[in-house]
Design a protein that fits this description.
The chain has 396 residues and is α/β, with parallel strands linked by helices. It has two domains: 2-184 and 381-395, Glycogen Phosphorylase B (Rossmann fold, 3-Layer(aba) Sandwich); 187-378, Rossmann fold, CATH 3.40.50.2000. It is 44% helix and 19% strand. The chain has helices at 22-33, 75-96, 109-119, 131-138, 143-154, 165-172, 195-204, 226-234, 252-264, 279-286, 308-316, 326-332, 347-358, 361-379, 381-395; strands spanning 6-11, 37-44, 53-56, 59-65, 100-104, 123-127, 159-162, 178-180, 212-219, 243-250, 271-275, 291-294, 320-323, 340-342. The chain has an eight-stranded mixed sheet, with helices on both faces. Strand 9 (212-219), helix 8 (226-234) and strand 10 (243-250) form a beta-alpha-beta unit.
């Protein structure tokens, strides 16, 4: 029957631009490989220049072209264009008459629910984030309404796929069938570079054989504590400390601001800052790091978050200094200590964790082995995709 099944995945950002959505891609690709016909129905601005119809590695893409006012516009101006976008998305879903509707994230739940009521096909909600918790950070007045709306709309859903255990517990508490599919990486993504290539790449960044490189990749700035790490290393005596930093990230404004901060503090020999780059290039630079960091400022969403870089560090066996939040503790400690967890707002604790790892090669080896074991036995993508298949098998 699989060859006859047409799946529509809804997405409120462009699937391919400016970057390929990794979670949607992996799930869509696995379903295509299994013989299903998959269309990603996504929103794109009318002036984007991207074609309405496209195909990527067997995944069909249809863009609903529509322009909405910029984020800083008043709600009065934004309202009508948003409602028109929702109406256009509903119309596009109905035109497909899918056998399964797979909504990615809460911002597609409304149009997906409207279409589902008419078509009555199996309906999956793929929750990448704790959406109400994200909203409360930016728009506190909308938090309760968003939480109610999500709970109400989830009532129409047949099965929830959650990106983390913490998110999954929320929907299990609503008595919804829920499956956790971690946003891990495929084995083929972890392309190893040689020891010679690693030395050459580190040297190009100004790192010597005896340096201990603590790295981070992602959004730069205060909220992700890259500023804090620069301040910590600036207070270490360069004559006695071998700790150096490597940041890879953006957006462009934060990249330039971080570079200027490093320059103004005369830290150019101890901190290397690179712009955001392709996934394949980032995977090379990960291997120049001796430790990785995930120490964001506290926020409600991060309590249940498991960032992509967590599994990227894990796959390469890079010991981490990570925020001591429930989801991180569950992944990195509950099955055997595999990294150091800290209060991300505590400068002394972050500094102590850096120095502990830099001064204890044996501990780093233990953590590295444990991380690779966790990836192999619990979190690798081959295990996650089986759970995705099980959800579809149960619904079809």
């Amino acid at each position: 029957m699989s060859g006859e099944v047409h799946i529509v995945m809804t997405l409120r950002v462009d699937f391919l631009y400016p970057r390929l959505d990794p979670r949607v891609y992996k799930e869509a690709k696995e379903l295509v490989n299994r013989g299903y016909d998959v269309t990603v129905l996504c929103w794109s601005r009318e002036d984007s220049g991207h074609p309405r119809f496209e195909e990527y590695e067997g995944i069909k893409i249809e863009r609903v072209k529509h322009t909405i006012p910029p984020p800083d516009s008043s709600r009065i101006l934004k309202g009508p264009p948003y409602f028109k976008l929702i109406r256009n998305m509903v119309k596009a879903i109905k035109a497909h008459k899918p056998d399964v509707l797979h909504a990615h994230d809460a911002d597609t739940l409304l149009e997906s629910s409207f279409a589902h009521k008419s078509l009555k096909m199996p309906f999956i909600y793929d929750s990448h984030e704790d959406y109400p918790a994200m909203v409360v950070q930016r728009y506190p007045m909308l938090a309760m309404g968003t939480k109610f709306l999500e709970k109400w709309l989830v009532g129409n859903v047949d099965h929830v796929i959650a990106a983390t255990g913490g998110i999954g517990k929320k929907f299990q508490g609503m008595d919804k069938p829920t499956t956790v599919v971690y946003n891990s990486r495929r084995e083929e993504d972890f392309v190893k570079i040689t020891a010679k290539e690693r030395r050459k790449l580190r040297a190009s960044l100004g790192f010597g054989p005896g340096d201990f490189v603590v790295g981070y990749a992602g959004v730069l700035g205060k909220t992700h504590n890259t500023d804090l790490m620069i301040q910590i290393v600036s207070r270490m005596d360069p004559k006695s400390s071998n700790i150096k930093l490597l940041f890879i990230g953006g957006p462009d404004v934060q990249y330039e601001r971080t570079r200027k901060m490093v320059q103004d503090m005369n830290m150019g020999k101890r901190v290397s800052v690179l712009p955001m780059m392709s996934f394949n290039d980032i995977m090379k630079y990960y291997q120049t790091m001796d430790a990785g960091t995930i120490i964001y400022e506290p926020s409600p969403n991060l309590i249940v978050a498991a960032p992509n870089k967590l599994f990227e560090f894990m796959g390469f066996g890079i010991p981490m200094i990570a925020q001591d939040y429930p989801e991180m503790r569950n992944i990195l400690v509950e099955h055997g200590e595999a990294s150091i967890l800290v209060d991300p707002s505590n400068m002394k604790a972050v500094k102590a964790a850096m120095e502990t790892l830099a001064g204890d090669p044996e501990l780093c080896k233990q953590y590295s082995k444990k991380l690779k074991d966790l990836m192999r036995t619990r979190y690798n993508w081959s295990l996650q995709r089986r759970k995705l298949y099980q959800v579809y098998d149960a619904l079809l």
